[in-house]
Automatic annotation (TrEMBL):
GO molecular function per UniProt: DNA-binding transcription factor activity; RNA polymerase II cis-regulatory region sequence-specific DNA binding; zinc ion binding
UniProt KW keywords: DNA-binding, Metal-binding, Nucleus, Repeat, Transcription, Transcription regulation, Zinc, Zinc-finger
GO BP of this protein: regulation of transcription by RNA polymerase II
Descriptive protein name: Zgc:113377
SUPFAM superfamilies: beta-beta-alpha zinc fingers
Record InterPro entries: Znf_C2H2_sf (IPR036236), Znf_C2H2_type (IPR013087)
Organism of origin: Danio rerio (Zebrafish)
UniProt-annotated location(s): Nucleus
């Protein structure tokens, strides 16, 4: 009598493990804390499914006819082809969202189940995906692998670097349909659009001033409380806004990320650069409401206004 099959893995678990192998094959690296989670399962999978894997293996590699990408396993090519065909055969029974891979559906299901299987060994915080754990671990290790070749600033995520690069390229891909004003971030566009709707639902209980966003209200309230939670690590000077701290720290670092497109002069603040560029463009946005004379800078207009105040005092 032969022994019963020593280990039976469900079809969906097998799919998940194939995905893990294929994803690792593409990335060439499994992070240490992820490997610890998955290695026993991968070893089991290797032991009992090695023959199936060998039957799927292409002698000369499996090549995608659409983009030329090469895969070792035919199953990996089959899943890759769904990127081109748009096929999404795995559907969430909770919300109806569809996915190209079973492993992606399983990851999505954690949103509904609340499962967080990836835990940080440093602080105990848990995550739904190993990718989020990898990002979180950089907080502890201090790793910032994405480097700006313009100013040397480093970031944890590639998406953060891409957003930062817009400071140098002046790219503003998000435009307001009402007034045409453009923004580097979609979140800033959403905040701006509330100006047009006139919706100011956040009120200060101290002075009854209203604000478009909760963040604006929180910043404003520090005027009343005197709170300055942001401290400079160089000179211990404190600020009530993180943006003010970042601008101040450029005094110590010498960083000047804003470059004039006309003469290449650099500035630490975006506002300073814009004011400087008016020298080249001839723009004079500040107008005296008494005599309609225009000025390049606000301080020039304010200084001019004193002339009219003096005239009124002598009449």
């Amino acid at each position: 009598m032969s022994d019963p099959e020593p280990c039976r893995i469900k079809q969906e678990e097998a799919e998940e493990l194939i995905d893990l192998i294929e994803e690792n094959e593409e990335s060439k690296e499994i992070k240490p804390h992820v490997k610890a989670e998955t290695l026993p399962q991968l070893q089991t999978f290797h032991t009992y499914f090695i023959k199936e894997e060998e039957s799927q293996e292409c002698k000369n590699g499996c090549v995608c006819t659409q983009c030329g990408k090469r895969f070792r396993l035919s199953s990996a090519l089959e899943k890759h082809m769904r990127i081109h065909t748009g096929e999404k055969p795995f559907t969430c029974t909770q919300c109806g969202k569809s996915f190209g891979r079973l492993s992606h559906l399983n990851k999505h299901m954690r949103i509904h189940t609340g499962e967080r299987p990836f835990t940080c060994t440093q602080c105990g915080k848990s995550f739904t995906r190993s990718y989020y754990l990898n990002l979180h671990m950089m907080i502890h290790t201090g790793e910032r692998p994405h480097n700006c070749d313009q100013c040397g600033k480093t970031f944890m995520r590639n998406s953060q670097l891409k957003m930062h690069l817009r400071v140098h390229t002046k790219e503003k891909p998000y435009s307001c349909s009402e007034c045409g004003k453009s923004f580097t971030q979609q979140s800033n566009l959403r905040k701006h659009q509330k100006i047009h709707t006139g919706l100011k639902e956040h009120m200060c209980l101290e002075c009854q001033q209203t604000f478009v966003t909760a963040g604006q209200l929180k910043q404003h309230q520090r005027i009343h409380t005197g709170e300055k939670p942001y401290k400079c690590s160089h000179c211990n000077k404190r600020f009530n806004q993180s943006g003010s701290l970042k601008t101040h720290q450029m005094i110590h670092t010498g960083e000047k990320p804003y470059k004039c497109s006309h003469c290449n002069k650099t500035f630490s603040q975006s506002g300073s650069m814009k004011a400087h560029e008016r020298i080249h463009t001839g723009e004079k946005p500040y107008t005296c409401d008494q005599c309609l004379k225009s000025f390049t800078h606000l301080f020039q207009r304010n200084k001019h206004m004193k002339i009219h105040k003096g005239e009124k005092q002598h009449t």
